[in-house]
Amino acid sequence: MTGTRKTVAALFLLPALVLLGALVVYPIGYSVVRSFYDQSGDGFAGVDNYRALFTDDGIRTALKNNVIWVVFAPTVATALGLVFAVLTERVRWGTAFKLVVFMPMAISMLAAGIIFRLVYDQDPDKGVANAVWVGVHDTFAQSSAFPKAHPGRESPLRPEGGGAFITKEPVRAGEPVSLPLVGVAPDLMPDSAKTAVGARPEPGRVTGTTWQDFTRGKGVGTLGAPDPSELGYAGMRIEAVRDGKVVASATAAGDGTFTLPEAADGARLRLPASNFQEPYNGLDWLGPSLVTPAIIGSYIWMWAGFAMVLIAAGLASVPRELMEAARVDGANEWQVFRRITVPLLAPVLAVVVVTLMINVLKVFDLVFIIAPGSSQDDANVLALELYRKGFSEDQPGIASAIAVFLLLLVIPVMWFNIRRLRREVRR
């Protein structure tokens, strides 16, 4: 059409063809050939390496996790992108919001993996996820402040079983009871704890004190009696038990004192196990059961902004007349969104989903960095297993088979995307 000779056109295309052949065609061809040879590369293995894809436990786990990734990661990221694009279209600060949501795309997978490795740290003092989770949990179910407390020497308490402690003898009204405990460092006592004082007798009532019976310094302090430097167990729950039933209960004040009604006369006092439960430490985000969803969450954090930007661009081209006509006909916002907006955005949504599907089939960085060694097998994906087989386990034949298998998985998705693009061009 331009009159250019074929020889000249071939010369101009030659550098690109050489690079394409060296960087794409040759590696693919070599991987296909290498996948039919054994570990040494000298013996022909046939289809044994491909058979290992479905018999090796590690590869089967990786394949299962890849299916989970392909199903959930693109779907959730696209859905969030759609919601963000639609909701920010009508707010004045929508551009700023889009900028914030899209910002993670500027972070490399390596950096994002390090960030979320810290976010998912088990220690609530380090990991943001568990800090929030523990905060919500403790709002509705306060953790004990005395998980290590226990009776000391010559204590009137004995273990009852299940983590509770009970007095050895029944208590009497008008006779103050001492319930000393040890095991909690003074600097770990709750802020509400005050200097412990001995309870005063009250007619017809059972009174007592529960406190940290420990004073720093050898030979300092009186055993079994509150000293000026000792603190009361503020918030400790005390139950009066008779014949296996709780007849009365009380909560210790800041100075450790408590008062029970006359019904406690002749009963035994019990410190229930709830006083000594270990503090809630959050979820094991990177444990075997949650590691894959946790890593998918980090991926969605990165790619929801990508989906939002593409969908917002498509939304800008949607005819507003159709939406206004639907509203005039009585449709509410949900009906407009479901029957007008989403169908018109279907081509854009397809682009986003297909792009993310291809991307998650190759995911490697996040899994390799976020998953600790103890649960990396449970978070395994095909790209990571390819790396492990090829380098850690020195099985290049199986690694090449995994690479070819990944290519075969990506080809149908790419073929669908190319067909869709050609249809769009024809329109």
What does this protein look like?
The chain contains 13 helices and eight strands. By secondary structure, it is α+β, with helices and mostly antiparallel strands. Strands 1-2-8-5-6 form a five-stranded antiparallel β-sheet, with no helix packed on it. The mean pLDDT is 88.
Uncertain segments of ≥5 residues (pLDDT<50)?
none
Radius of gyration of CA atoms, rounded to a whole number: 34 Å
Q: CA-to-CA gap between the ends?
A: 24 Å
CATH topology of the largest domain: MetI-like fold
Overall geometry comes to elongated
**What's the number of domains?**
2
Quote the average pLDDT: 88
Helix content: 40-55%
CATH architecture of the largest domain: Orthogonal Bundle
Name of the level-1 CATH class of the largest domain:
Mainly Alpha
The share of residues in extended strands comes to 5-15%
Structural class, by secondary structure, is alpha+beta
Write the H/E string, N to C. HHHHHHEEEEEEEEHHHHHHH
Q: Determine the CATH superfamily of the largest domain.
A: MetI-like
Number of strands: 8
Short overview:
The protein has 427 residues and is α+β, with helices and mostly antiparallel strands. It folds into two domains: 28-131 and 285-426, MetI-like fold; 157-276, no CATH class.
Annotation keywords:
alpha+beta; MetI-like fold; 2 domains; five-stranded antiparallel β-sheet; three-stranded mixed β-sheet
Which helices and strands occur, and which strands form pairs?
Layout: H1 6-34, H2 48-52, H3 57-87, H4 94-102, H5 109-119, H6 128-140, E1 157-161, E2 164-167, E3 177-181, E4 206-212, E5 237-242, E6 245-251, E7 257-260, E8 268-271, H7 291-316, H8 320-328, H9 333-344, H10 346-361, H11 365-370, H12 382-392, H13 396-426
Parallel strand pairs: 3-4
Antiparallel strand pairs: 1-2, 2-8, 4-7, 5-6, 5-8
Helix pairs in contact: 1-13, 3-7, 3-10, 3-12, 4-7, 7-10, 8-9, 10-13, 12-13
